[in-house]
Amino acid sequence: MSESSRPEPFRRVLGKSLLLILLSAVLGTGLLILSEFLPADPMDRNLARSADIFQATGKFPNLHTWCSSRLDNYSDAIMLLMSGTVSREKPAEYAMLAWHGDMGDLDPVQIFVKHYIDGEPYEKYVPYSRYWHGYGVIYRLLLQVFDYHRIRQLNLLLQVALILLLCWEMYRAGARGRGMMLPLLITWAMLGPAVMGMNLEYSLGFYVSMLSSLAALVLFRKGRLREREEMVLLFSGICTAYWDVLTYPMAALGMPLAVIFCLDPDGNLPGALKHLLRLGFLWGLGYGLMWALKWAIGTALTGYNCFEDALATLLLRTSGEAYGETVTALDTVLSNVRYFFGTPFSWLFAAFLLGEAGLLALRMPREKAAFRALGMRLLPFVLIAAIPMVWCVVTKNHASIHFWLASKGLIVTVMALMCGLDQARRALTGSGAARRAAAG
Hints:
By secondary structure, this protein is an all-alpha fold. The chain has 21 helices and four strands.
């Protein structure tokens, strides 16, 4: 590693990171406030044109009968209701508290239909202050021109384009990058491209995780990955806190980590573990501090105690109870695994693992030192693969209730295991060729 590519001292990185998080929070607040001044009439017209989807399909329709394919119209409806609620008179308050219309005991899908099809007025407005709801900036711009039908079509096209761009950058990255192309395509297939394209809530974590991975690939091709990888993880955490609403945030951590460790593996296990912890810490710093700044800024600008709602929800989501019953870590993990792997594309994942494991077994050296080196090469990927499982254990309440949502974080497990085995097999092939050349 050249001197110019060595990571900065951690104290300097930490100071820079804190400043960037603060600036991001200020910028994010400004964007939300500015979006309150967008014209409301075009949004209302396009939202009214969108209501037939919710009326026809309800809260949680299944897109396919042959695989896990639940759409979360419940969340999409509330996200659109909030995006369509703007106030030029109180822009800071509406931006920070995310007011939206409410009708007694009705859920967001029913409210959407009652308001936009039946013409019934909202009974009251309620806040949803614990998230940034940064997606509202994009949705309000899109709703100036498109209805929900067109936004979903555009969403699917953008996701296909992003996957193709990732494959192109992987191809350009050389042998290590090309080894990630098939794992990426299998991972995407297991997510369900049509499901992801037709659900706005699912797309939030998808874009952050894939764009972060794309940034790592571009930096690698330009020879600047080790210089900038920490900022990639930091901004992945910041953007997750700003755009996402606790869907499957670990994808935004694990996907770029898997890509980075494929492209630029460490030569020894202690270095790899230190590398992993450092990048993970910076992602967590960006995610946690950016989220906490939402509560601080919201409270300061509005006088509403955003901390109270946020902390109460945090305690609930990390508790071991769901719907009044105790949930265990094992049950939570298993429910997520069962749902995520409930697709025929899981057979592609299994076939890939078996094929790579078979090639490893055929080329496995007899020397204990080489065997140990292979295990050390795999361990970072195994740890990355475990990240979604740990998240399920920590957030038992959320992950057990919203298993169809939280389970999508398992794309990290799938991608990391496939990439890890591929990289181990490539390393073993390379070392075997070197031994034969030395012997000859």
